[in-house]
Structures are given as structure tokens and as C-alpha cells.
Amino acid sequence: MKKLIIFIGTTALASSLVSDAMAQLVWSVQKKQEPMVCSFNCSNTYQELQKRCSPALVGKIAIDPLISINPFTEFDGIIATLKKDAINSFPLSYTFRQCEATCNAASTLDQTSREVIYYNQAFLDKIKGSDTKVRWAVRCIIAHEIGHHFMGHTLPSAFGADSNIRRKRERRADFFTGFVISRFPGATEQDAIEGILTLDPATYRPRNEAEEKFNIYPTLQNRIAAVKEGFKAAKNPKDPLTIAMFKKIDSVAKVQMKRNGRSSIYHVIDFKLSMGQFDEAKQIASEQLLNPDFSDKAQLWEYKSIADQNLGNLTEAIQSQRKAIELNKNSLVNLERLQLLLDNGNAMQKLESEKIKQKLESEKFKQKTESEKIKQNINRSQIKIN
């Protein structure tokens, strides 16, 4: 913690100058502050998710309707159930996407401040039990991540919290899970804890209260208790819990939806791509590109590029990706995707791919160096102040 000691004369002036310098450095870091990553029980960095979970880098997901619970269907079911709340004024618009980089599920913001929920299909497929049991577990896991978004845990302002605060956030998300599951007709308290029960007690950490003090997650017992509390609170006949009680300010999703209504469209395209319906995904993206009220055309061009790539239209995929880069020149993810596409092209395109690859390596090195300099400057300023 910074110590503020006021002196008279030249010492005060020197201290003031150092404080001003410190404030400028902190501001420059906060300006680049990354959104928070909240997960069901996983450790993912924001940069890792941005690099590995971009729709540009995620291929077709195999969801077998005969043996798997479709997470997109369950996600839509949760949103529809919550919207039935008579006093719910929130659009609950989130982007839902598969990504194997997360070990189970995670929530964060993408580079355009959309609220995204990532899930790992392989993890969901490994959940054992009857179809009914697995369906409740999937719902619980998704509800947990929605809770993190709804309560603002993924905002950049939430970044840097200590382990005690992060444990509280996890319990609140578990509490929210209990509330969500209670909204389904016929749901029981047992149904509400099925998500937590997918976590293996043999490998889960923390194992006890002593370990919990040094961990960002509560113990399994405390998480189960939080879910049950949320379920009971929602069922309280005297003072039933409502979704509006979970927050006092609008979510980022509400602001984004009001601005350009893009979240629901992205969700549909993500679903089409995940099911291998590339022609339909391309058609939706193409139609929205003609919509003058749709502002984020860069993302639509990228979606069109992904669809064309999977349809075997490499030339069109490259053209669309170039359009995406023209509209979002600062996106290294978009540039990286173009590099990968060109690498599959002719000799001239392969040469361009190599040049872009070198540029990407240079940019990443530059970013890393700048980040290290900022940290060093902050450390030196803190030493002077103390």
C-alpha cells in the first residue's frame, strides 16, 4: 500500500513529483488493464483465451445429438428461463462458444468488450450419469459462468483482486447457480449441485479450510453450501429472490446490445459454425454485412472467412480476412489468422505468410518488453515513495 506522508518545502515537492509519476504509470497500466477471467474450476489467462479461443482459430465442434447434451440448447434454455422473470429488465445477451483451451468452462470479455462464455466439449462429454443428471450438471456449469458476468466479476475493474475476494466471487456465482436452477419447473436441490459434483474430490483443491485461505476457490463443501443457499433463497415464499437483486447496475452486455444489437447475431453464427452448418453461417454474416446499422463489420468478415475456409473456398476466406484486418488494424489475432490462411496458399501467398509471421513475432516481443518496462518503473517509483 502506498504511504502518503506530507512534508513542508522541497521534500514535499519531490514527494509530489514522485506521486504524480506513480499516478501516470498506474494510469497507463490501468488503461491497458485486462478483463478478468472467471472459471468453474480452471486456471486460464486472458491472453491465452484470446489467442486460442478466437472464433478465427476454433474449428468445427462435434456434438453428437445421440450421446451428448447440446450445451447451446441448454444455454438458450437458461436464458429463456431467466427472461420469464417478470421484473427482469436485463437482456442477458452473451456470446457462447466452445474452446478446448479451458479445462471446463470460463467467462471473460473479448477484445471488443463482448461478454463471452467458453466451454470445453470434451469435459462435458466426460460427465458420467444418466442423461437427466448430465443435463443438470451442464446447466449448472453454464449458470455459474453467467453469474460471473451478471455480477460484474469479469470487468477490467475486477482485475487484481486477492484470493479472499475471488473466493467470495466464486461462492456468489455458485449461489447464482442455485437461483437459476430453482427457476426450472420440477428442479430439486440435488439437481442444483450436480455441477459441483462433476469436480473430482481426489484432485480438487483446496481440500480443506486450511488450504482454502491460500486458494482462489472455496472448498467443495462450501461451494455446495452456496448453491443450496441460492436455491433455498429463490424458493423463500416470504421474500423470494429475484434476478434484479444480484446487481444494481446494467451489465456490459446490456450496453453492447443497446448500442448495436450484435450479441444475439453472434450467438446464432457461433452455433451454426459449431454444428458444421457453414453455408448458413456464411449467409447470416453476408446478410448482416449489408445491414447499415450493424457497426462491428470486422467480426462479420472474420466469421465469413471462417465459413469459407471450412467450405474449401480459400481465396474467398483470404479476401474476407483482409477485410476484417482493414476494419480492425490493431488485432494481432486477425493478422495471425490471415497468416495461417496464406500459409496454405500458393508460393506468393506463402511468402507473404512468412513476412506476416515475422511481424507478429516482432509485435509480440515489443508488447512483452513494454509490459516489463512499465512493471520496472512502477517498482522503482514504489521504492522511492516508501
Q: What is the straight-line distance between the termini? A: 9 Å
Helix content: 55-70%
Summarize the helix and strand pattern as letters.
HEHHEEEHHHHHHHHHHHHH
Strand content: under 5%
What is the radius of gyration?
Answer: 23 Å
Q: Spatial order of the strands in the main sheet?
A: 1-3-4-2
* CA-based shape: globular
Please characterize this protein's 3D structure:
The chain is mostly helical and 386 residues long. The protein is built from 16 helices and 4 strands. Helix 12 packs antiparallel against helix 13 and helix 13 (297-310) runs antiparallel to helix 14 (314-327). It is globular and about 70 Å long.
Question: Which helices and strands occur, and which strands form pairs?
Answer:
Layout: H1 10-31, E1 38-39, H2 46-52, H3 71-82, E2 95-98, E3 105-109, E4 115-119, H4 121-125, H5 131-150, H6 163-182, H7 189-192, H8 209-212, H9 220-235, H10 252-260, H11 263-274, H12 278-289, H13 297-310, H14 314-327, H15 332-342, H16 347-385
Parallel strand pairs: 2-4
Antiparallel strand pairs: 1-3, 3-4
Q: Which keywords apply here?
A:
disordered N terminus; 386 residues; four-stranded mixed beta sheet; single chain; mainly alpha
What's this, in brief?
This protein is mainly alpha-helical.
